[in-house]
Amino acid sequence: MHEISASGDPSLNKASFYAQLREDVSAILTGERDWIANTANCAAVLYHALRDVNWAGFYFLQGEELVLGPFQGKPACVRIGPGRGVCGAAVVQRQTLVVPNVHEFPGHIACDCASNAEIVVPLIVGDRIIGVLDIDSPVLERFSEEDAAGLESIVACLLSASEVGG
């Protein structure tokens, strides 16, 4: 098993941290094409490598709803309706959403009352959205545009390494 080397290393700037984390994710995905296995490992890597997060995982689009996929953290909402919460908004807007304070986000879904900030990256294959990567933090303003760029690169790595069904 590949050792995770980027685990919150304070000596790295964010760009370097995410470059190393992408290498870690890529190494774990090497030789495995299964979508569920790869998203499960990716969620675990992100949850343990990122500082100040209390949930990291995936929701997959099934019909019009987002349905809970592999994750790390407390139990979560199983189904998210069209356009609901940060995850639903990211699907509708087809872009990464960085939310500094979820309590100020209209329609935020509070699965864990400890969450204060959130970032959601849509999973796009061709022109279809197949789901989202969702990461929550108890720290206000935890995520930045640098986090968005880093996580988007990790999602791209995940999508290219996996056989995505659906």
Automatic annotation (TrEMBL):
Domain GAF: 20-165
One annotated GO molecular function: L-methionine-(R)-S-oxide reductase activity
Domain of life: Bacteria
InterPro entries: GAF, GAF-like_dom_sf, Phosphatase_reg/MetRdx
Gene3D superfamilies the record matches: 3.30.450.40
Listed name of the protein: GAF domain-containing protein
Protein family according to the UniProt entry: Belongs to the free Met sulfoxide reductase family.
GO cellular component terms attached to this protein's record: cytosol
Lineage: Bacteria, Pseudomonadati, Planctomycetota, Planctomycetia, Pirellulales
